[in-house]
Amino acid sequence: MTKIFKSALRLATALGALGLAGSALAADKMRIGIVNASSDVVYFIAEKKGYFAAENIEPEFITFISATQMIAPLGVGDLDVGGGGPSAGLYNAAERKVNVKVVADKGSMPPGYGYFSMLVRKDLVTSGKVKTVADFRGLKVGDTSKQGSGDVTLSVFLKKGGLKFEDVDTLYMGAPQLAVALQNGAMDAALIQEPSLSLAVSQGSAVLFAKGDEIYPNQQLAVTFFSEKLATTNRALAQRFMNAYVRAARFYNDALKDGRLAGPNAAEVIDLLVEKTNLKDRAIYANIIPNGLNPDGCANAEGLREDFRFYAGMGWADGNVDPDSLVDATFCKAAVAKLGPYVKAK
Asked: Could you give the dihedral angle defined by the CA atoms of residues 73, 74, 77 and 82, in that order, rounded to the nearest 10 degrees?
């Protein structure tokens, strides 16, 4: 009996220790802001492929109309991570000592990957009312974020026709709503990201007038943000997130080929887009213009500087803010050091 009792005691002690260890290894929950754009897929890949789980992270995705709305919750730590377009509000928050950090590329437009492009109502094109950029004077033009990266794209576009930003009537709403506004005639033109871009074209309400990568090559259109709390007081967790993120970015890049989702991993990426977004048509996803994404994670700091100069020039942001102070590339660089060089799958 004594031997049996001692064996049972040892077993109970061992099981108890395992239970305590299991509790200690409970996954860290992270609140991640998304904008219902195809570029959100990098987060979904990290979840689906187990990259977050491998870093002991449990993600919770929260939808916003734009990244501009994420700045306040990121600033107070109610949101850990955000993904979307950098904006004047980001720099204004920095001027108020709310130091949200840009830590990674989430959506950029290298040649062939202009996933944020200018659409024009089809009837305006077929009637001949809009033939060139100069014909945009006085039009109602939609964008997803006021004083955000889309406004930079719009300004660059208008300059090609000798126009100023103030020469059009700008309206702001989410990409799906912009597509509807084009369809019902409430909007003349709009800068829209995928997949709403391709949906509007497929429905016949709009035509692709100018591709984003031709308007503003290599624009850093969307980024991943860390809250100040995450970036400064919980850097270990932040690094674990970035390790998973860069793995997901590389998986995504292996889905790209010739400006389409046509690489070896394309089917899995399209599956995720169908599962996680409101658009369920695989045929549209097979033909969308996907976003570019640095397989090493890091954002284009020079592009962000250029956009900041536009915000400051418009009087939307304090020109005394140092835009480089908001960029922290240490996390992506550490992830690359851990994972090694990226080799594209064939």
From this structure: 110
User: Confidence band (pLDDT; 50, 70, 90) for 98?
Assistant: confident
Q: Are strands 189-193 and 116-121 parallel, antiparallel or unpaired?
A: antiparallel
* Phi and psi, residue 291, nearest 5°: -75, 150
Q: Do domains 29-112+220-339 and 116-215 have the same CATH topology?
A: yes
Q: In angstroms, what is the C-alpha Rg of the chain?
A: 23
CA atoms within 13 A on the CB side of 45: 25
Which fold is adopted by the domain 29-112+220-339? Answer: D-Maltodextrin-Binding Protein; domain 2 (3.40.190)
Structure tokens at 247: 């793995």
Would you state the structure tokens that stand for residue 231, as one six-digit string? Answer: 């970036």
Residue pair 76/302 in contact by the 8 Å Cβ criterion: no
| Residue the block writes with tokens 């409430």 | 186
Residue 114 and residue 142 in contact, taking contact as beta carbons nearer than 8 Å: no
DSSP-based three-state secondary structure for 108? strand
Tokens of 230: 């995450």
Is the distance from CB of 43 to CB of 72 less than 8 angstroms?
Answer: no
Phi, psi (5° rounding) for residue 78? Answer: -75, -20
Token pair of 237 as six digits: 């967790």
Q: Specify the pLDDT at position 279.
A: 84
- E-state strands within 227-323: 256-257, 260-261
Residue-range domain boundaries for the chain: 29-112+220-339, 116-215
Distance CA 101, CA 93 (A): 11
The model's pLDDT over 257-285, given as tens digits with 9 standing for 90+, comes to 999 999 999 999 999 999 998 889 999 99
The residues with which 87 forms a beta bridge, in sequence order, are 148
Q: Which of 69, 86, 6 is nearest to 301 (CA)?
A: 86
116-215: CATH, from 3.40.50.150, 2.30.29.30, 3.40.120.10, 3.40.190.10: 3.40.190.10
Alpha-carbon gap, residue 265 to 246, rounded angstroms: 16
- Looking at residue 5, its pLDDT comes to 37
Q: Is 321 helix (H, G, I), strand (E, B) or coil?
A: coil
